[in-house]
Structure formats: structure tokens, C-alpha cells
Design a protein that fits this description.
Length: 142
């Protein structure tokens, strides 16, 4: 059974450093390792969504998620590293943790700080919450 490594990506330099770390590890020993990129889009407020069709909202999340994942995909493709990708909508930290649990991931690799509006003292707030919420090992890349 392959070892799944989850790499949450928000388009920030910190999340791209996490992708670089994963590339180095995969190139060192790629046997049985699968990389899963994830981007979590925050839900739009209800005062916006009630005036916009669900198709437009879905397209917005997909396009925004694709843009956030673009540089990470390019890094993995340039290194010849196979991956899958997912764009989800929800509160970032619990969505990341739930996805990792549901997919049977063995490890979460995250950047120390992302693009969130509120940051922790040492770690980004999303990274800090993921570390707190999950039982899985989390590698935090500075």
C-alpha cells in the first residue's frame, strides 16, 4: 500500500517550500510514495451566495483553487513527481485534517506560514490548528 503524503497549498511561498521539501524526499526515495496536493477555499459569505448561482460559486472556487495550486503543480511536474490534486471548500484546518483522515494519509507537510489573514506567533494559524487537530505527523517547513 502506498504512503500518502498530503501537502496543503495556498499559493504562498511557504507552501511552495513545503512542496520543494516533498520533491527532495521523493527524489531521495520515491518507492511507494504518493503526493496529494490540496487547496481549501473558504466558503463565500451567505450575503454573497444568495445572489449568485451555485455554478458561478463552484467555478469561482475551482478557478481560485487552480491558481493557488499552479506553482506547486509546476514544481512537481518539473521534477517528474506524480501527484493528485483536490480543491475543497470549508474552514481550512479541519478540512485538511478530515481529508487526511478520510484518505488514509500518513503525513501532512505544510509551510510555516500561509496566506491567511491572521498568523500565529511562530506558525501560521492554519498550520497551528492542523498540528493541534490531527493525530498524524506534521512536517512544518520554514
Amino acid at each position: 500500500m502506498p504512503s500518502l503524503w498530503l501537502v496543503p497549498v495556498d499559493g504562498s511561498q511557504a507552501s511552495l517550500r513545503a512542496v520543494d521539501h516533498v520533491v527532495q524526499e521523493v527524489l531521495r526515495d520515491a518507492s511507494g510514495l504518493e503526493v496529494v496536493l490540496i487547496n481549501v477555499q473558504p466558503p463565500l459569505p451567505s450575503d454573497v451566495t444568495r445572489f449568485v448561482s451555485s455554478t458561478v460559486i463552484h467555478d469561482y472556487h475551482r478557478e481560485t483553487g487552480d491558481a493557488a495550486l499552479a506553482d506547486a503543480r509546476a514544481k512537481l511536474e518539473a521534477a517528474g513527481v506524480a501527484y493528485s490534486q483536490h480543491i475543497l471548500v470549508g474552514e481550512p484546518a479541519p478540512t485538511i485534517v478530515d481529508f487526511a483522515r478520510e484518505r488514509g494519509c500518513m503525513l501532512i507537510v505544510m509551510g510555516a506560514r500561509g496566506l491567511g489573514t491572521v498568523t500565529g506567533v511562530l506558525l501560521g494559524s492554519v498550520t497551528q490548528r492542523v498540528v493541534h487537530l490531527t493525530d498524524l505527523p506534521v512536517v512544518v517547513v520554514k
